[in-house]
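Private note to self, pasted from the team thread so I don't lose it. Backbone tokens:
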């Protein structure tokens, strides 16, 4: 099961919708979703398909990581009964509402604990990311650091790219993995600005924003504007560049 989950994260877009599967495979996936783990014969009967046709489609769905076979024995005896169930990737073929839950968690935190609690949480996220990435940047010049950072971010956004204008570079994020949440709560984008500033030691700001309808986020790296240490734990966009107050 873990193998399928890992493959789905590394090689399969979890936002891929069931409508993009062929019609027979879509019907099989939906049948397993509504009926739970099912055998080949149960699916053939339910969908009015031949056993061989179902077997072929199940092989393809299993190979692609959408389903997994499980063995069950009746009362622990006899030949195992083979059934098929959705993997984590297969579950994600169907719409989820994680964005709404995330926004609700953020808003509930602010309502009951105050904005300072959210800022402290985001600052902790910055610290964790800096602690993880900084050792991998030791001994590199700023241009090399930018390339390595791009490779870190490309794991979540395969469209991430570097753009150079004069002496300045920009990291262009075209497929934000938190797009819907960031549109509603743009303070989350301050994490990226803060991490880049800390790791590069120069001013970073977003000159293009998804929230403004620009179609991407462009993080402009101004090498000629060095940032004196210690830098703020969290740099909130559109606020003065001062250390975060601890309320």
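Design output:
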């Amino acid at each position: 099961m873990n193998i399928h989950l890992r493959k789905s994260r590394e090689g399969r877009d979890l936002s891929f919708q069931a409508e993009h599967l062929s019609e027979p495979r879509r019907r099989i996936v939906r049948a397993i979703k509504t009926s739970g783990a099912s055998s080949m014969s149960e699916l053939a009967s339910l969908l009015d398909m031949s056993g061989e046709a179902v077997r072929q489609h199940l092989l393809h769905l299993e190979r692609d990581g959408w389903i997994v076979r499980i063995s069950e024995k009746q009362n622990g005896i006899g030949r195992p009964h083979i059934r098929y169930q959705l993997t984590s990737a297969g579950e994600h073929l169907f719409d989820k509402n994680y964005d709404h839950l995330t926004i609700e968690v953020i808003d509930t935190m602010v309502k009951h604990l105050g904005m300072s609690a959210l800022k402290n949480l985001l600052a902790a996220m910055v610290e964790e990311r800096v602690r993880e990435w900084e050792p991998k940047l030791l001994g590199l010049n700023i241009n090399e650091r930018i390339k390595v950072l791009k490779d870190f971010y490309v794991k979540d956004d395969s469209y991430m790219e570097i753009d150079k204008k004069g002496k300045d570079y920009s990291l262009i994020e075209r497929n934000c993995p938190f797009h819907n949440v960031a549109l509603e709560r743009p303070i989350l984008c301050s994490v990226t600005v803060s991490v880049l500033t800390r790791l590069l030691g120069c001013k970073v700001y977003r000159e293009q924003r998804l929230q403004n309808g620009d179609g991407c986020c462009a993080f402009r790296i101004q090498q000629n504007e060095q940032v004196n240490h210690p830098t703020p734990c969290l740099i909130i966009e559109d606020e003065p560049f001062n250390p975060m107050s601890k309320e």
